[in-house]
Design goal:
The chain is α/β, with parallel strands linked by helices. It contains 10 helices and 6 strands; from the N terminus they run βαααααβαβαβαβαβα.
């Protein structure tokens, strides 16, 4: 089984940096910043698609310039304080536990850039846990299924043995389009009812529920060895 995680909003609580960087990008282009709600609604899309969605009714907005300014602002924030955006509670523990399970491989599918993915992997020391990492530099934006299909090929796993874990409707729709299972998380940027409506088989409220959602029992507990 290949278990693929989204990053922002699923593993990483990065909403402050995303909202602040998008506001700065619009301000640098002489435009009124979008609301926090508007920005978080498009988290999960690749940068250009996110800016296009925010500026949907404003064809005069310079999409490429805003997108470039966002990337520069976001990368500068991450470089200056790589651990300012924390992992959600239980994220690191579940990643390590799943990676240790026989027959389970881990992957990433994110609208972030390759530079952003590498920074995430190195900041939290989790690079060796993942067998496949797909990002906005590799494929069309979510909800196009290419990221997941490429992750399955990279890990050598058929799509039907893949599960996508994410916080947005884009993640759920991508999973369904790829023929994979979809599990939503309730702590991210899209509400549970929208995740279910877009294809999630269930929505978990904490990482403690993920083993059961994936169909695993509790971790094996070994009896202590007798003292010699």
């Amino acid at each position: 089984m290949l278990v693929v995680f989204d990053v922002d909003g699923t593993l990483l609580d990065s909403q402050h940096a995303i909202v602040a960087s998008m506001a700065e990008a619009y301000q640098l282009n002489g435009l009124e910043p979008p609301s926090r709600e508007r920005v978080l609604a498009v988290v999960g899309l690749s940068v250009r698609e996110a800016v296009e969605a925010i500026s949907l009714e404003r064809p005069d907005h310079p999409i490429d310039a805003i997108g470039l300014a966002f990337k520069q602002s976001f990368n500068a924030r991450r470089k200056a304080a790589p651990e300012a955006d924390p992992l959600y509670d239980g994220a690191l523990d579940i990643l390590k536990a799943l990676a240790a399970r026989e027959g389970v491989l881990l992957g990433i599918a994110t609208g972030n850039s390759r530079r952003g993915v590498n920074r995430f992997l190195d900041t939290f020391g989790v690079r060796d846990l993942f067998s496949a990492t797909q990002c906005a530099d590799d494929a069309p934006s979510k909800p196009h299924p290419a990221m997941l299909l490429q992750a399955a090929a990279e890990a050598g796993v058929p799509a039907e043995d893949m599960v996508m874990i994410g916080d947005t409707t884009f993640d759920m729709m991508m999973a369904r389009s790829a023929g994979a299972r979809a599990i939503g998380v309730a702590w991210g940027y899209h509400p549970a009812d929208r995740l279910l409506a877009s294809g999630a088989e269930r929505v978990i409220s904490s990482f403690d529920e993920l083993d059961a959602a994936l169909g695993f029992g509790p971790p094996e507990v070994r009896a202590p060895e007798a003292a010699e």
